[in-house]
Fold each of these.
Amino acid sequence: MFRCGIAYPRCRWILPLLLLFAIIFDIIAIAASSGWVEDEDAKSHYANMWTHWRGRNDNWTAKSLMEYSWAQAVAALMIIGLIFLIIAFIISCIALCCTLNLGLAPLIGGLVFLTVVLQIIALIIYPVKFNEDLIFEGHYNYTWAYGFGWGATILAIGCGILFCCLPRYEDELTGLSKTKYIYTSA
């Protein structure tokens, strides 16, 4: 007889793992040396969260974006969001992996949603202000490191929703409820 069901006690490791992936994506986005924005094929202008470069061939000049208040705000929001994600990850490991303390799940969900708000604001401010202040002509693309920032934010949205819904499944996570099978065959 074949039965298919969800093993909830094993699923409680998945949420901290997803938060860890969001942290890794955030670190990649924040620490990338290039890859937030570039002109066509990065021929004359490209940038990361901290610096932008202009030039041709081997003759590039770097200029800090931290001269602009919007870039400082973007950096601060992304770093504060990363710190909140790390705190949420540590609390989730304690709440779900070491012991089962689902009372902390709404706190973790709140921290993660706060991270989401901060990072969405940062990821919207960056292209708007970059386009206003630094792009004069040509076609620009927001590339891989900027995408990692959005990837971390999307993962955080999913984790926040799951952490807020987690207390509903306390019996399943502790193993006190009867297993519900999705499909059974005779």
Amino acid sequence: MKCCLVKWIIASTQPQDKGEREGGEGGSDSELELSTVRHQPEGLDQLQAQTKFTRKELQSLYRGFKNECPSGMVDEETFKTIYSQFFPQGDATTYAHFLFNAFDMDRNGSIRFEDFVIGLSVLLRGSVTEKLNWAFNLYDINKDGYVTKEEMLEIMKAIYDMMGRYTYPCVRDEAPSEHVDKFFQKMDKNRDGVVTIEEFIETCQKDENIMNSMQLFENVI
């Protein structure tokens, strides 16, 4: 599992685990995991059924999540902090905002562990169709079931702002707009100015260049 959000979670557990190992507490890791199970047994079973994570992975993710977010909720500022740490040379603020909204399914300004881990499961281990559904939700900024060219451009600019200085050769200012023009022309089959989920998935699956470009998206989760 190599994505920014997982690295953030796992990193929060490592110093603690290392100290336990050095302290010679042979069963402490297992005890911690058991305490996690006792803390939320029904929730853990349900999440195992809803995700593609093993029980042990869920325990590890939950422990890290609780270390970082004792309240059990992640807010938008936390997302911005995470992404500014992983992309210090760019401006991750806007992308973190959009990504947070994609995880915050009930739009209440915070993300529960359940929502967080279900989203991660799709992004890391979901089928191509599941990942494309999730990507469509990210691009559909106002959540009306359609993606406009303006929405797609906002997301693409946010990704370029965050990663642009890492690319070689250096990204030109007009590159995101050119990128979106090309994508949108292919996706908007009936030329009605919006892209539906069906158009989005069909085009992505049939076009190798678009699927390759989606790897950029996957690399910044």
Amino acid sequence: MKLLIAGIALFFIVETNARWINFPIEAIQGAGDMGRAYIDMRKANTIGADKYFHARGNANAASRGEGGKWAAEVISNGREWVQEKMGHGAEDSAADQRANEHGRNGGDPNVFRPAGLPPHYSSESHEDE
């Protein structure tokens, strides 16, 4: 019985540590996803596309795992905080955060996709890997 309990405890310890070993890698990859979404948003230069790219970056980052989701949240919140301090509207910031959360929570970024956005700006995850 003691051996069984020790085995179960060891299983939980190893499993928990295995998840946390991946966290920094997922965070770095998630930050890359956020960066790609930002670069694509700047290149697209399409009116009304910012919410789509917010949702896409967050969705791609969150799909990496807990580390990616964490990176997406930190980057999104930091960006919105800076924008508020620079005098951008609170209403637009709130709309950006809704798009961020939608993507982070597994929502389809395409609900924010505006008409006229070129098709090569896909919401497919991890395109460049």
Amino acid sequence: MSNCIRTENQARAAFQSASKRLDPKDRVEYYNSWAETYDKDISLVSYSAPELAVNFLFEHYKGNPEEALVLDVACGTGLVAKRMNQLGFRHFVGVDGSKGMLDKANDTGLYQHLEHTLLGSEPLPAEPGKFDVVMIVGALRPGLVPISVIEELYKAAKPGAYICMSRVNPIPEDADEYKDKMEALEIR
């Protein structure tokens, strides 16, 4: 991906290309190369899921944001942490499968710890019962984060913690099956 001036059409093409990559290693390589222009592309296509999810969480959060420990799963470049930080959250642990995206997240200076992990292929590197808030925005879809990871998110959360999951699926025919499996999941 080039650092030249991006257009909305280029940004949309980048998103479409990402959603077509079902092989995990191929997808990681794509996200590594996309990291440089990802935030710009998000802006160009008016992708608002991180802001909407964080705002929803904040409206319902009863704890002290400054004291909350947040697990940002599939953190990408850190868009969720940036918005949460604007609302007073200060303690972040991020997990992502793309080293390029993690480098960008690290550049924000918001994360106390970042883990490079391919979700579904490797266990979620999170201590059970540790987090006050667990966030995953936009990554719950076929070929990216498998449904099996949802149980790991719950295990990482403290009793009474907030778990905020937002999903988008650019391939409608896959969306219903994934959603049905999510809703049928029984957390133990």
